[in-house]
Amino acid sequence: MNYRIMAAAVLLIGLSACKSNPDKLPPGNPFKPDELGLREQKLQAAALYKSAREALDSSDFGTAAKRYETLATKFPFTDYAIQGQMEKVYAEYRAYQPDEALTDAEHFLRDYPRHPRADYVQYLKGLINFDRDRGLEASLGFSTDKRDVTNLRRSFDDFSTLVQKYPKSVYVGDARQRMIALRNQIARHEETIVDYYIRRGAWIAAAKRAEQIVAQYPGAPVIIESLAQLERAYQELGLKDQADDARRLRQAYELAEKNNKDQKAEAPAAPQLAAAPAVLATP
Description:
It is a single chain. The chain is built from twelve helices and no strands. It is mainly α. The chain has a domain at 39-94. The longest helix has 28 residues, at 172-199. The radius of gyration is 31 Å and the shape is elongated.
């Protein structure tokens, strides 16, 4: 009996002690962060980020991307990991890994839509699609107008999103210039399709495609040629009034182009297209 009373007393004392300090946690409780452990993790994350950034600055883009991936895996919630995710997109872009870069860019914009440098990642998306089909022929100045323009359209949409969502971004000016270049290149591609239809006597298809160019790409350099093709297609189809309208519109474009050339001859040379930006600043 005495043993039972003593055991009950010990139990009550233990329960009383727990009630008197309910916030006290057992040693090594995983839900209470260890300040020393956090500091050690931050130091390790900083060292890994520095290593990745050094590889990036040395143009060792493949190594940099792998180190940024390790950083994100080991220390996913640190500022270094978030910064590393942005720089990883750039590293993959420079390492000619467009699919990986686009996937990581989309993940970043989805996870951090209000990040102060989200505009940079959106701009990178446009650059990746802008450059991904530029091969040896383009670098040597050969025509690539007959190539598929799917990625060029995506690039245009990426830059358009940048301009609409981040109108005050420092990248908007360059994005607008690239959108003009993309519009002109896509229009040239469409013009080659019209030419294909004309050479085969497919006048209805040629007229419809030429109408789309005039409606969708006003101001593009190929507009005058497209209007001439449209005029011919209408003539072949016996649509005299429509052919006359196309001719008058072509003449108006030719006059406007002549006036623009005269003005440009008197104006100073336009600045060259801005180069792709370097990596972001370190955190």
